[in-house]
Every structure is written in C-alpha cells, then in structure tokens.
Write a structure and sequence with these properties.
The chain starts with 5 loop residues before the first strand and ends in an 11-residue tail after the last strand. The longest helix is centred in the C-terminal third of the chain and has 15 residues. It has a single domain, classed as Glutamine Phosphoribosylpyrophosphate, subunit 1, domain 1 (4-Layer Sandwich), CATH 3.60.20.30. An eight-stranded mixed beta sheet has the order 4-3-2-6-5-1-11-12. Strands 7-8-9-10-13 form a five-stranded mixed beta sheet, with helices on one face. By secondary structure, the protein is an alpha+beta fold. It is 31% helix and 23% strand. It binds N-hydroxy-L-asparagine. N-hydroxy-L-asparagine binds next to strand 8. The site of N-hydroxy-L-asparagine has 12 residues, from strand 8.
C-alpha cells in the first residue's frame, strides 16, 4: 500500500528545499534520496547565509560546514564536521554512510575523503559573506573575543541557522538530515549539534523522525532530536514531543545565564503527522519569525508554537 509522502524543513528558506523533496517523494524516491536532494537545494543557494555556499565563516574567515543524514529503515547514519571548500556536506555524509563502516569524518580528512569520491572544491565565501566577516572583524572588540571562551555566543538575526529535514516516503520509510555552516564567527574547529546523531537529527522507522536548528551548544547537551523521537514512542504527538523537549532543555540549563536558547525542533511521526516548536522569541529577537515548511499535497510555511522558560515543567528543575 502506498503511503502519502511528507517532507518538513526548518525556516522560510526550507520552502524551496521542501518543494524539491516533495517532487521527488511523489515520484517514488526514497526518503533518504529526497532529504539529500532537498538539502542540496539550500546548500547550493548562495543567498542562504547559514548553509553551504554563502554560509558565514568562522572567526578566521573560513567557512566550516557540518552535516548529517540518517536512514530510518536501516538506522544507518553518516556525518561530517568542519568541512571546508565543498558546498554539499550532506552528500559527503551520505557517502560516509554508504561507503565506509564509519559514521562520522571530520575536517581535512572528511574533505580528502570527499575529493577521493568525486566532489570538487570551490570558494564558499561569497562577496556578501566575505563582507559580513570583514565588518565583523572591524567591529570585533575585546568583549567579542571573550564570547569565544566564556558565556553564550552572541546570536544576531543574521549569524546562524540551519536546515533540518525529515521525510516520509511512499514506501513508509523515514529519513532525516541536517546541514549548516554553524554559528557565524565561531571558534575555528567548533562543531555544533547539526552533525551529531541524536542532537541535530534522529530517525527510527518504527516511530518517527526529528531535526533541529538553533543554539547548538545548548541543544546538544539535551540530545534533543533523540528525545523528540523517544517522546513520540511514548505516545506524544510530534508537537507535544517537541514542546516537552524544549522545556527539558531549558530546565536543565540556567535560563538566566544562557538567556533564551533560540532553538526549534520539527518532527514527523511514522503515520505522517507533523509538528514543531520553538523557544519563545524566535531566535535573536521579536523580528525573527520562526517558520517551518511542510510539504504534503503542496508546500506551505507554518509558524510554530513557542515554549517560554516560564513554561518549564517544575519537576524537571529538580
Ligand atoms: C549550530 N545549530 O551550529 C547550528 C546553528 C543553527 O540556528 O541552527 N542556528 O549550532
């Protein structure tokens, strides 16, 4: 029996990726292939300044990309971190999954692996992202430097985002993906949540799939995507599962110290039900609207439910 396909992605820019993914799913592609091709759309769009080509660089002006992909049917996963000069890290992650007995490759060796497998290098800095980095360098002060070593990094509306993706194909199989340039101006070598299986993404065909975007240094400490899938396994809807996970994350970390975490989660259950949630203020301010794209019959943008620190479940604080 054929299942109605679904693809969901994070952020407004996820819409174009969802359109491509849904097109493929409707023509019978696997969830895994649809996720990879959909993510490639965003990775190759130079206007998206937080993923692939055009992504904002680290403090040294080098674009370092993180990505992962996971198959709900086989539970196989592939991941890369700190990749330079190659615009489509999710496709390298797919090769790690398909061609090696390993799960994660990093840095120069991930790049070398990609080159051995047919990828080509290109300049990932665009005129716009280079200019943004130069501006940041000019304005950078002693206190900015300290954000590399203590306290939370300063998130602004422009300096971070990620595309997280979950898909259900016509065969009833699920997959998830995540790809990002991470936080802009990050300490060179910093790896976020996106390529970490269980944090940036997680999927189990028996339950559902989840993926995240936001303040990765906080999100990975709560292993958020794994928790969302576990919550669905315990009977929560995708939306409930995302809300509970964000409450858990905020409860476990000190909101006064770390402020509003700027985190969002999307999820799809194995029957195609979808849901999402984000922390209250969008990410960096009220003007920053959290949106996610849902591709079912067609592709539409949705606003999420928001979880505020005041909604933290008291029992989780103990
Ligand atoms: C990271 N989670 O590297 C990514 C950044 C992101 O919205 O998604 N920002 O921490």
């Amino acid at each position: 029996m054929s299942v109605s396909p679904v693809i969901i992605t994070t952020w407004r820019f996820g819409l174009a990726a969802s359109v491509r993914g849904l097109e493929l799913l409707k023509s019978g592609s696997s969830a895994l292939d649809a996720i990879e091709a959909a993510a490639n759309v965003t990775e190759l769009d130079p206007e998206v300044n937080s993923v692939g080509l055009g992504g904002l660089p680290n403090a040294d002006g080098i674009v370092e990309l993180d990505a992962a992909i996971m198959d709900g049917l086989t539970h196989a996963a592939g991941s890369v971190a700190g990749v330079t000069d190659i615009a489509t890290p999710i496709s390298i992650a797919r090769k790690v999954m398909d061609l090696t007995p390993h799960t994660m490759l990093v840095g120069q060796n991930a790049r070398a692996f990609a080159l051995r497998n047919g990828f080509h290098t290109e300049e990932l800095l665009t005129e716009k992202s280079r200019k943004a980095w130069q501006e940041w360098q000019k304005e950078r002060s002693a206190s900015d430097v300290s954000h590399f070593t203590s306290g939370p990094p300063i998130l602004t509306p422009d300096n971070h985002d990620t595309i997280g993706l979950c898909a259900l194909d016509t065969h009833g199989n699920l997959a998830a993906g995540c790809t990002t340039s991470g936080m802009a101006w990050k300490v060179p070598g910093r790896v976020g949540d996106s390529p970490i299986i269980g944090s940036g993404l997680y999927v189990d065909n028996a339950v559902g799939a989840a993926a995240g975007t936001g303040h990765g240094d906080e999100m990975m400490k709560a292993v958020v995507s794994y928790r969302v899938v576990q919550n669905m396994e315990r009977g929560m809807t995708p939306e409930e599962a995302c809300i509970e996970t964000l409450r858990y994350m905020m409860a476990k970390r000190n909101p006064e110290l770390h402020g509003n975490y700027g985190a969002a989660l999307i999820a799809v259950r194995k029957d195609g039900l979808v849901g999402a949630a984000a922390t209250k203020s969008g990410f960096a301010g009220p003007d920053r609207l959290w949106q996610w794209a849902v591709g079912k019959d067609d592709c539409t943008l949705h606003e999420g439910v928001y979880v505020t620190p005041t909604e933290i479940i008291p029992s989780l604080l103990t």
